[in-house]
Specification:
- The structure holds two protein chains of two kinds.
- Chain A is globular.
- Chain A is mainly alpha-helical.
- Chain A has one domain: MetI-like fold (Orthogonal Bundle), CATH 1.10.3720.10.
- Chain A starts with a helix and ends in a 6-residue tail after the last helix.
- Chain A has 14 helices and no strands.
- Helices cover 74% and strands 0% of the residues of chain A.
- Chain B is an alpha/beta fold.
- In chain B, helix 18 runs antiparallel to helix 19 (414-431).
- Classes of the chains: A mainly alpha, B alpha/beta.
- At the A-B interface, helix 2 and helix 6 of A face strand 1, helix 2, strand 2, helix 4 and helix 11 of B.
Amino acid sequence: MARAVTTRHKTIATAAAWIAALLIFFPILYTIITSFKSEQEAIQGFSLIPSGTLESYSEVQAQSGYFKFFLNSVILSVGSTVLALVVAVPAAWSMAFSPTRRTKDILMWMLSTKMMPAVAVLFPIYLIFRDTGLLDSRIGLTIMLMLINLPIVVWMLYTYFREIPGEILEAARMDGASLWNEIIHVLTPMAVPGIASTMLLNIILAWNEAFWTIRLTTTDAAPLTAFISSFSSPQGLFWAKLSAASTLAIAPILIMGWFSQKQLVRGLTFGAVK
Amino acid sequence: MKLRALVLGLCSASALAFAAHAESITIATVNNGDMVRMQKLTDDFTKKNPDIQLNWVTLEENVLRERVTTDIATKGGQYDVMTIGTYEVPIWAKQNWLLPLDKLGDDYDTKDIIPAIAGGLSVDGKLYAAPFYGESSFVMYRKDLMDKAGLKMPDAPTWDFIKQAADKMTDRANGVNGVCLRGKAGWGENMAFLTAMSNSFGARWFDENWKPQFDQPEWKNTLQFYVDLMKADGPEGASSNGFNENLALFQQGKCGMWIDATVAASFVSDPKNSKVADKVGYALAPDNGLGKRGNWLWAWSLAIPAGTKKADAAEKFVSWATSKGYLDLVASKEGWANVPPGTRTSLYNNAEYQKAAPFAKMTLDSINAADPTHPTVKPVPYVGVQFVAIPEFQGLGTTVGQLFSAALAGQSSVDDALKQAQDAATAAMTEGGYIK
């Protein structure tokens, strides 16, 4: 009896999970379906069966040159992630293994910077970028993306590092390992799942960032978020083209997420249950 | 092989040398059919001006407005040519943010620009932006449904006629709504329509002393008429409908009438995208017999920010894109029906254009019927037909738009919406120092 109830519960829970997942994924699925419709089909109401035309994709490519934006997205998301790790690994190390009375406060302060609306600092940041010649530059935007995601990266790494027994690091120190060797050769290999999932999450966050990437770029450094924005129109129906542009923009990150989902889930639940 | 490598090397070197000498200008623009077409035709410009390269930045309208405002206010110098509207030009020109366009060339023929449009883009007699395309608003209606209702649309209808026709055309069982109007909140969405409509009811945003006027009977008449009309004959969920949503409804045959931008005429009459392309008639925006019609005036225009270091190249481009020659170029490549409308008088005297665009005369009449300096019946201290050309209007217009959209959705009464609009406008005007 108990087994029957458990099986029924499991079935219901699985069905509910599937329904919830489909509901969440449906807007993305419908965007992909719409991208294979003609503009006329796109406005004709709800339909899950497209005619399969590639017209929108060819027009989007002809109009905007996808690959330039794609390349910028790759450079900015990977560049900012690498830069963030370079800063965050030592920071998280010191907070996890040499905490002081103020460590918790510092962590909270770092997180609090994420609570401020970005638009509040638009003008100061814009002026700094203007005066330093960083407007519409990949370097400037890489630094910006690194800074806005840094609190999350430090927090995630701090959580993972705390799971690693400090005694192992002490043993390495006893064996004469320098600080550099301790971080690179002892800590990092043990924290690889955590670092990898932090890296993947940061790449996704940087890829999707649409406030600063649109406002601090014009042509040279504009990534895929600017590419999508260029197909939105208040006068005129370009839903199929907009859907094609969106599909092209999310496809790389969706594929990357699909292939690395095990790593992501493993990293995100690392140490969740003790 | 060596020879081939040498030739390739020389070609690359000369290309690099050329690129180093070419001046590149950055143009910020919006994504609409006419602007996209211009980007495709720029070969003509670069052939005539091989020393100028063009970089395009296309953005969604609100993002473009925000980005361009940030850049121009901070003198960021990111753009050399900007696409802006009739709302921004008078405000920015007064701030000295724009360069006057006085070197457009001998054959540019500034006097050919439609006077109502030129007036909206000039300050103290100087042109600060060149119109790329201009638009007003008018009535688009289904001739077949009008016949079925036993009515004939006059060239210049009244609001009472629109109400009568909408009542008769509404057939909700068959998915036909008598009238589709904007309801989505925003200063450029429902407030563009409602402000223009209020002019024909004799309402105004402010009196001569900048005192808000939402507590006056003219605004009550406007909003009550709009809400009643839409409740009786409008589509379901109208408070979420803007230009694009209504365009989709009309193209699918779900609207008897639609009062909106004249630029929509080319979309609804396009058989590729519209089910009712051969059944559309046009009429002037309605009035109430008070001497003003409910139509607006807008022109997407090219302007040069004062911070540019490439003013000469930028002005050459502006001159090319807004010239008579450009209209001829579009006509030769894509046909007269695709020429950007509403900027030059000579276009409307062109027999070929009149033949290709059956809505041409009505568009010109609608543009000419709008007067940005005297938009409504009573005198006003501001410029603008469907907006008030003051910096505070974007925020205030959207706030009032949200209140009116809520009234349309039935979340508040007309009286409550007007009272809150009056309070919001009074607060904004006091804060801005217009009133004490």
